[in-house]
Amino acid sequence: MTAPVVTKEGSGEGKKMVTMQFVLPAKYNKAEEAPTPVDERVVIKEEGERKYGVVKFGGVANRAGGGRKSGEAEEELERDGHKVIGEFLLARYNPPWTLPPLRTNEVMIPIE
Q1: What is the DSSP string of 5-50?
Q2: Mean model confidence pLDDT for the chain
Q3: What are 16-43's pLDDT values in tens digits?
Q4: CA dihedral 8, 9, 12, 15 (to 10 degrees)
Q5: pLDDT at 66
Q6: Which residue has the higher pLDDT, 25 or 98?
Q7: Which domain holds residue 72?
């Protein structure tokens, strides 16, 4: 499995939806070089360059905890003159069986 696994929660069709992104290894320079997904719900796409304000934290990464960290970070980013341009993403770096105190997570806030 690759790290980080990046998630974003939202809603669509009246349901809660979670989008999950896996960062492909560097050997895949372009999306076309990646293996073809066998599940039609999986898509491979290249994302252009982006800028994020990032806060690292340990423990369990969930929407509530990420929201608290994001709120604090957004205030600091705006105080430092950065413009927040979207919802935060959660990045998880460890497998699910890692003990919470040993986990590494990030809140990623898109900025201009």
Answers
A1: EEEEEEEETTEEEEEEEEPPPTT--SGGGSPPPSSTT---------
A2: 90
A3: 888 889 888 889 888 899 999 999 999 9
A4: 150
A5: 84
A6: 98
A7: 5-110
* Bridge-based pairing state of the strands 15-22 and 89-92: unpaired
Place of tokens 């997570």: 105
Radius of gyration (Cα) for the chain, nearest Å? Answer: 15
Strand order in the sheet with 5-12: 15-22, 5-12, 89-92, 105-110, 52-57
For the chain, what is the domain count? 1
Which two structure tokens, joined as six digits, stand for 3? 């790290």
- CB of 7 closer than 8 Å to CB of 21: yes
pLDDT of residue 65: 82
Q: Do residues 108 and 14 touch, judged by C-beta distance below 8 A?
A: no
